[in-house]
Amino acid sequence: xxxxxxxxxxxxxxxxxxxxxxxxxxxxxxxxxHRINEGANLHDxxxxxxVLRNASRTQREDIVSNPxxxxxxxxxxxxxxxxxxxxxxxxxx
Length: 93
What we know:
This protein is mainly alpha-helical. It has a domain at 19-83. It is built from six helices and two strands. A two-stranded antiparallel sheet has the order 1-2. α2 (23-37) packs across α6. Mean pLDDT is 75; it is low at 1-7.
């Protein structure tokens, strides 16, 4: 989709653009965003086993100090509501 002559990046491309494309870090960030959307606290999520196994201490500290993570979770949730993906009246296919 174009926006003022610039191509609009997807949600995940915007979130992960600063990570250098490391697939492991992308999976960890996606997991964290998913858990935040479920209502988990960011500080608790970075101490969960999955994150501890797949992210270094430095990476976890960077994640906690990055306000974009929580913003991204909110943004993803808004997209899911807007698309109807989270419509409570929608039946699973």
